[in-house]
Design a protein that fits this description.
- The protein is an alpha/beta fold and about 210 residues long.
- Helix content is about 50%, strand content about 15%.
- The chain has one domain.
- The strands form two sheets. A five-stranded mixed sheet has the order 2-1-3-4-7. Strands 5-6 form a two-stranded antiparallel ribbon.
- A hairpin with a 6-residue loop joins strand 5 (about 165) and strand 6 (about 175).
- Helix 2 (about 35-50) runs antiparallel to helix 3 (about 55-90) and helix 3 (about 55-90) packs across helix 6.
- The chain is globular, with a radius of gyration of 20 Å.
């Protein structure tokens, strides 16, 4: 069990930044697949030239497998560090849920989404929260976190992914899309706790969150 803290955080998931918190922190995204793309392509080209069944082909396959393993290890290490820090620092973690299987059908985003490993990150945050006595709140995928103004509650219409900031026509607040979404996720999570919905690993909840 981790020491009790009074911090509550909302987490928005993205590609440019893997994690954006309601505190305005952006994690960045190492893009491990792209980092090792040339090395992997070179190893795969060499493999393709080797004779089927030969010892040289077996050696080439091992080299390709090693590059894949390196990408996987780097990705897991980054996700573990991010999720561990998030759970250590916050008593309540509110995270949006995404329909990754549907999103990955987009050919332009498929590779980036797969490399981001949102599902694995969410899984790690949840099990570490349960283990550490934290509260994990899953926000419904249809909740309009990006389109709702966190200042006045106005909900904008359809918003394309290339819109990274927008001005609320109701209160004239200029909003960073991701930070605004994270703040809305946090507030929605605080509301869900009161009803016990989509919540796991219930631990001590900060007073400001239980009201």
């Amino acid at each position: 069990m981790l020491p009790v803290t009074d911090k509550v955080v909302g987490v928005d998931l993205g590609i440019t930044d893997l994690m954006i918190t309601s505190e305005g922190e952006k994690s960045g995204n190492p893009r491990h697949t792209r980092k090792y793309a040339r090395k992997l392509a070179k190893a795969q080209r060499k493999l393709a030239k080797k004779k089927l069944g030969s010892s040289n082909r077996r050696k080439a396959k091992v080299k390709v497998a090693r590059v894949h393993a390196k990408i996987t290890d780097c990705r897991k290490d980054f996700l573990h560090k991010q999720s561990r820090r998030l759970v250590n620092e916050n008593q309540v973690i509110c995270v949006e849920t995404l329909r990754i299987k549907n999103m990955i059908k987009n050919p332009k985003l498929a590779k980036h989404i797969a490399d981001a490993s949102w599902g694995e990150l969410t899984r790690q945050i949840e099990y570490k929260s349960n283990w550490g006595g934290r509260t994990f709140v899953a926000i419904d995928q249809w909740f309009p976190s990006s389109k709702r103004c966190s200042c006045c509650g106005y909900i904008a219409g359809k918003m394309s992914l290339n819109v990274r900031s927008w001005t609320c026509p109701e209160c004239a607040t200029v909003l960073d899309r991701d930070c605004n979404a994270a703040e809305n996720i946090k507030r929605q999570g605080m509301s869900l706790i009161a009803f016990g919905e989509h919540v796991s690993g219930i631990g001590p909840v900060p007073v400001s969150c239980s009201r």
